[in-house]
Write a structure and sequence with these properties.
The chain is mainly alpha-helical. The protein has one domain: 434 Repressor (Amino-terminal Domain) (Orthogonal Bundle). Helices cover 68% and strands 0% of the residues. The protein has five helices and no strands. The chain is globular and about 35 Å long.
Length: 75
């Protein structure tokens, strides 16, 4: 994986973490448990592990945000 790809994945991870915090969840565990997500998988996602499109869509649906809105400011 290139440095550019790694940076993009980290930007996506940081944005997902911000969405969680903005939604009032101080811990990734409480967010994952509340929304029927695997706790370990969600932790990996917020820490920059690769994510599947279907998982990303599920998380964005939880936050009621479209793909266009989510990716609008990510470069």
């Amino acid at each position: 994986m290139t440095k550019v790809e790694t940076n993009k994945i980290l930007n996506i991870a940081a944005k997902l973490k911000k969405l969680r915090i903005d939604a009032g969840f101080t811990s990734y565990e409480s967010f994952a448990n509340r929304n029927d997500l695997d706790r370990k998988q969600y932790w990996r996602i917020e820490n920059g592990s690769n994510i599947t499109i279907s998982t990303l869509i599920k998380i964005l649906e939880i936050h009621k945000i479209s793909l266009r809105e989510f990716f609008g400011d990510i470069e």
